[in-house]
Amino acid sequence: MTVRKALRTSEEKAASRSSPATTSDVRGAKRSLGKAGRLRVRLLGPPRVERGGEPVEPDTRKAIALLAFLAVTGQAQGRDRLAALLWPEADQERARGALRRTLSALRGVLGGEHLSTDGLKAALDHGSIDCDVLRFRALLAEGRLHDAAATYTGDFLEGFTLRDCVEFDEWQAHEAEALRRELAGALERLAREERAPARAIAHAERWLALDPLHEPAHRALIRLHGNAGDRVAALRQYRECARLLDRELGVAPLPETTAVARAIEAGEPEPAAARASSPNVNERVGDLYTLHGDYVKAVASYEAALAETSAPFRAAVEHKLADVHHRRGEWEAAERHYRAALRGADDAAWRARVTADYALAAHRRGDRVRATRLAEEALALARRARDDRALAQAHNMIGILTGERRHLEESLALAERIADAAARVAALNNLALAHARDGDLDRATTLTREALAASSAIGDRHREAALHNNLADLLHRSGENEEAMRYLKRAVRLFADIGEDATREPEVWKLVEW
């Protein structure tokens, strides 16, 4: 219903009354309207809005986008923020005018309810709104996975786009990916925990449909068919997995996947997962070169280790190679090795740790959207695994991206609880940077000194150089110029010893947070 239509209908109803309304009539009508006018906002799939069981059709796509943004964020939003989000090409005055008209029209089609505004902000009354995205997430939080999966009826704002609204597009894509990840996690658990074979298989098939190249989902489906006694279906699923991986990625299934299929084919028990091996000599040498900052030799050592390491244990070396390329600012190589470290991995804690590092690389590269998506994925995985080390890394990364000290403080507390020295140094440094941004230079300086002392004990020269540089900056800002110069000179000497040189590896010198 358009605004004009709503107003016309209202006027016609008013004209048809034969007697004036009393005060009690008006109050009763308002109570009745409040009950009948509950707003249902459906954003999983194509957007749909209903009020009191009747469809509501906002006049413009911008009005739909505005309603979706307010519904999902769940809090009041500043008018300037909304204007810039939806009218990025307009100047501030024109954008605010367009927002004002859109809010007025939206309030009209919502019957004057559900939407509140003032001169600065706009918000929805969430007490009178049923939004499927919020309900989906609430059901997940309550552990009602079957109900959550049933609520997910399609991808977020499926088929909906706005022209020339890059920031809104990025927000929409980010929410869509996050919701798909959350659904995938629920389906993975349902497939693993469901006792009825047919229902478990259905959950695994839906999980796989979200990403047909996700090998753990293929492996789960192969295993479920085998456990159900359907050897033909299990082997057919393995062949489909092999075909897709070869066609799309040019790789074969992981040995673990092949072992599951071979055991089913032979009618034998699935082989127990092999225990992780200790690092070989080349890997240990690569670790030492990394700490010393000799990254060319570190890469050579890790590549030699990779050639000597059996397939089940290659992920750890791939992760270390990714870290060295990340430190050098070789983003494509780092991404390739992060993906290799993650491919086929079932362990949620491991995936969380690698994904958090991958998020940091994306952040340092300047890809904030990808960094945010990866950081949130890492946090979700870490929470699912209940792994303190992974949680420390994920909270640290979220803190870097948002600047919120609570995440960095949580990371520091976790790192200290599990005695993870490297994670503690990272959290101390990033917390110091957050305090510095807030103007608390004394607290920032104290935390940076503490981080520097701990980093020196670890022996990571690159991060030690960055901490000397950060401390020099804080001291200079505090007016302690002589001491600042001493730390700056030490930082320059350390940076000069790392990697090759500033012209060939400029990212080495840019390290500030990690």
Could you characterize the architecture of this molecule?
The chain is mainly alpha-helical and 514 residues long. The N terminus is likely disordered. Helix 16 runs antiparallel to helix 17. Among the domains are: 162 residues, Orthogonal Bundle (Arc Repressor Mutant, subunit A); 79 residues, Serine Threonine Protein Phosphatase 5, Tetratricopeptide repeat; 72 residues, Tetratricopeptide repeat domain (Serine Threonine Protein Phosphatase 5, Tetratricopeptide repeat, Alpha Horseshoe). The chain starts with a helix and ends in a 5-residue tail after the last helix. The chain contains 25 helices and seven strands. It is flat, with a radius of gyration of 28 Å.
Quick description:
By secondary structure, this protein is mainly alpha-helical.
Summary keywords:
disordered N terminus; Serine Threonine Protein Phosphatase 5, Tetratricopeptide repeat; 4-stranded mixed beta sheet; 514 residues; single chain; mainly alpha
> What spatial form do the alpha-carbon principal axes imply?
flat
Fold-level CATH name of the domain at 1-16 and 28-173: Arc Repressor Mutant, subunit A
CATH architecture of the domain at 1-16 and 28-173: Orthogonal Bundle
Total number of β-strand segments? 7
CATH class label of the domain at 1-16 and 28-173: Mainly Alpha
